[in-house]
Automatic annotation (TrEMBL):
GO terms for cellular component: cytoplasm. Belongs to the Rab GDI family. It comes from Russula ochroleuca. It comes from the Eukaryota. GO terms for molecular function: GTPase activator activity; Rab GDP-dissociation inhibitor activity. This is Rab GDP dissociation inhibitor. The keyword Manganese does not apply.
Length: 447
């Protein structure tokens, strides 16, 4: 391998594949390598055999689950927000031609011991048990305020300054009860904890508007999901990269990140071969543990527990929905962080007929992670099969400009891809030296 590349990308997670696709379109000469024999890295979707090989090496899948090829089980549960940043990247790059999307049927929140649907229409809001009659009126005024807000028109501000006043101030102005604040902050703004309440209100305002505009786009829920699983996303960007001349190597061990005497990146060694490039981008797993490499650190609240559960029925209390997100706000279960449940089914071509895949996840707060997701597991009904993982969330210590080594962040506990896209923008700017600018178009969703 004598030729030199502009960029070598290590790992085929979604972040890395988006970057290699975008860099190839930009005219960069990209080599993309992965130690696994499948796309997706930590964000892969596995068939039954791969799933059991990963979690239970000595056990074959039970015959009661049907055919291997019917399965594409996500390792990390995330949905796509219809009006969000990932949608903009999918549309900007035109990789939507390789993908089909389906709506997630419903968004639910756990409150006072029961699951309630997050209202998606005015009629649902009127009937919703989440708020009493007077509270519904107050909430209506709050949402009208958000929808009518115009930065340049002070008449729409009602005396509020989104950049100075906290979200607590805004809630109090509209007299919203703690339960309503919980539901808005966690089920709509999708915050993992309550830290946002004491900070300036603008980010929360933007998140709520994103949620409501995504809900309005396709109805039912603000989320869309690719048929055949999330593993289709990195593959679509890999195709994009290949069209623009990117080279892919799967099942390729990465033995060494080669640097010169000044510690600057030179190339990547696999076996006896070394490939040279000007820059390297990779997921944290290619750069050793934080103590070894000195290039990574675990973020605060840096462990996520996830349980992949195979069910033979829809989740009770969700109107037999074929796909749902359920959020258990931390206050409801005396925790610091929310618990998430994401469920998909054969409707999304990710499992056999009459099977449902539910993933329960949260940020770890104790030394008994599996016990922490018990409130979520209890909502599922009988569980046919369960696979539990606990993983650290890594972030790079340096920005990579000094040594040309650019490390992406691990997948966090959020239930959507917005933070992944933040990372794409961040790494792009460090690697290319300018902002990533996206075009606007629409995404087609099948009913």
């Amino acid at each position: 391998m004598d030729e030199e590349y502009d960029v070598i990308v290590l790992g085929t997670g979604l972040t890395e594949c988006i970057l290699s696709g975008l860099l190839s379109v930009e005219g960069k000469k990209v080599l993309h390598m992965d130690r696994n024999d499948y796309y997706g890295g930590d964000s892969a979707s596995l068939n039954l055999t791969q799933l059991y090989r990963k979690f239970r090496k000595d056990q074959a899948p039970p015959t009661g689950l049907g055919r291997d090829r019917d399965y594409a089980v996500d390792l990390i549960p995330k949905f796509i927000i219809a009006s969000g940043e990932l949608t903009k990247i999918l549309v900007h790059t035109d990789v939507t031609r390789y993908l089909e999307f389906k709506q997630i049927a419903g968004s639910f929140v756990y409150r006072d011991g029961r699951i309630s649907k997050v209202p998606s229409t005015e009629m649902e809001a009127v009937r919703s048990p989440l708020m009493g009659l007077f509270e519904k009126r107050r909430a209506k005024k709050f949402f009208e305020f958000l929808q009518n807000w115009r930065d340049e028109d002070s008449a729409t501000h009602q005396g509020i300054n989104l950049d100075k006043d906290t979200m607590k101030d805004v809630y109090e102005k509209f007299g919203l009860e703690p339960g309503t604040q919980d539901f808005i902050g966690h089920a709509m703004a999708l915050y993992l904890d309550d830290d946002y309440i004491t900070k300036a209100a603008r980010p929360a305002y933007e998140r709520i508007v994103l949620y409501t505009s995504s809900m309005a786009r396709y109805g039912k829920s603000p989320y869309i999901y690719p048929l055949y699983g999330l593993g289709e996303l990195p593959q679509a960007f890999a195709r994009l990269s290949a069209i623009y001349g990117g080279t892919y190597m799967l099942d390729k061990p990465i033995d060494e990140i080669v640097t010169d005497s000044d510690g600057k990146f030179v190339g990547v060694r696999s076996g006896s071969e070394t490939v040279k490039a000007k820059q390297v981008i990779g997921d944290p797993s290619y750069f050793g543990s934080s103590s070894e490499s000195g290039k990574l650190r675990v973020v605060d609240d840096g462990m996520v527990v996830r349980a992949i559960c195979i069910l033979k029925h829809p989740i009770p209390g969700t109107d037999d929905s074929d796909s749902v997100q359920i959020i258990i706000p931390q206050n409801q279960v005396q925790r610091k962080h929310d618990i998430y449940i994401a469920t998909v089914s054969s409707t999304h071509n990710v499992c056999a007929k009459d099977i449902y895949v539910a993933i329960v996840s949260t940020i770890v707060e104790t030394d008994r992670p599996e016990q922490e997701i018990a409130p979520g597991l209890q909502l599922l009904g009988p569980i046919y099969e369960k696979f539990v993982t606990v993983s650290s969330i890594y972030t790079p210590i340096a920005d990579g400009r000094a040594d040309n080594i650019f490390i992406t962040r691990s997948y966090d506990a959020t239930s959507h891809f917005e933070t992944v896209v933040d990372d794409v923008h961040d790494v792009w700017k460090r690697v290319v030296g300018k902002d990533l600018v996206l075009k606007k178009r629409e995404v087609e969703v099948t009913e």
